Amino acid sequence: MPKAKSNLRSIPGVDTLLEAVGDCPLPHALVVASIRDELKILRKGKEIPEPKKIIEQVNQRLKDLELSRLQPVINGTGILIHTNLGRSPLSPVTEGGYTNLEIDLASGRRGNRAGYLEECLTELCGAEAAMVTNNCAAALVLILRHLTAEKKEVVISRGELVQIGGDYRIPDILESTDAQLKEIGTTNRTNLEDYNKAISKDTALVLKVHRSNFFMEGFVGSPDRHELAALARKKRVPFVEDVGSGVFLPTESWANGHHEPTPKEVIKNGADLVCFSGDKMLGGPQAGIIAGKARYVKALKQHPFFRALRCDKLILNTLQKTVEAYLHNKTDELPLHQCLNTNLKQLKRRATRLEKGLAKLPLAVNLAESQSQIGGGSLPQATLPSIALDLLPTEISLKDFAANLRQASTPVIGVICGGRFRLDLRTIFPEQEKPLLKSIVQALETS
């Protein structure tokens, strides 16, 4: 026992470690808390490291914490809507200070929160009304909580009980609202008569979920959306569709001929409500958008639960700019659409320029043809031809090179494939080329 106490006395104090750490960009209180947490772990250990080793562990802990701060990264994966990298790329938000979030500048009275944005979305979707929540899952939950307040049954095809993302499953979302699933049809085929037989006096709504993150081929079938809407209308039951990724422009030219339904198309075909994400194919920030019949949107906005799901001024402002770009026919200004529409000639020219910039480094560089993906649970069958830089460091391992790039002044995320580190140029913007070269130099120097 005395020996253990003696060992504990050898552990440096907080002040000593603070002095050893020196200048750190993290807030002082956070540095102190991290040091204390590390000391707690050390005191519980069987062996006490040397003071030098303890300082190294504290520095590593602080470095890891600093790396976890939200910061810009260079996406070289070739996945345009990368879930781990914030989904759709956004232009920097430059506005600061106060905004007219809930004041009517014309009258000076309290205004309608997001009123202008809702008008823009209403026009874009060809709907009677629209509103915004903090994500698409929230939008669906709000719709279900309202429509299943009295009647509980939700009619849905078995082929649409999908899982989107890590833990987001449609059945779980439905059951979390106390709704009762009424599954119809089979995994691969559901027909109109299945819906007709399933709708009863206890049916709260008919729900259709677009399979945006996978596709089925072969002996598959589902009713035409227009027919389904007509049946729901005849039965006096609301028809709701979750289209997921929310694309608004034709996809046939770059999605291997595949047509992705737009929210406007869904509403035109008779849906009472449609919901979709703002940070996928729309190209905006994380948000859930609901559009459709005015009476339903009005009721949803008055629901007590909506206050817990609404967006703040930063999201609303960024989403407003995104939607205005569509209404002004300036979608080419959206970063996502710049990634989609960059042609191979431009990519090859940029790749050649980068190759020259890397010529004198201890690095083998090859230009290669690549295939970019949309990602983010959108258009899984679509690929875009691209150009990549395949890098092979000559003095360090690929694993260390990739780790060093992640920890560079501007972090770089790529893919190790074929024994090389690949950077797909389609998801790297021209203005990121200089920071990219700097980060590569840093990655090679820190070996």
CATH topology of the largest domain: Aspartate Aminotransferase, domain 2
CATH-level-4 superfamily name of the largest domain: Type I PLP-dependent aspartate aminotransferase-like (Major domain)
Give me the count of strands. 15
Let me know the average pLDDT: 89
> Which CATH-level-2 architecture of the largest domain?
3-Layer(aba) Sandwich
How many separate helices? 16
Supply Rg: 27 Å
* Portion of residues within helices: 25-40%
Beta-strand residue percentage: 15-25%
Q: Helix/strand-derived class? A: alpha/beta
Largest sheet: 7 strands, mixed
Cα(first) to Cα(last) distance is 43 Å
Lateral arrangement of strands in the main beta sheet: 2-10-9-8-7-3-6
Determine and state the CATH class of the largest domain: Alpha Beta
Q: How many domains make up the coordinates?
A: 3
Give the low-pLDDT segments.
none
Globular, elongated, flat, extended or rod-shaped: what is the shape? globular
List key phrases describing it.
447 residues, alpha/beta, Aspartate Aminotransferase, domain 1, Aspartate Aminotransferase, domain 2, 3 domains, 7-stranded mixed β-sheet, 16 helices, 15 strands, 19% strand
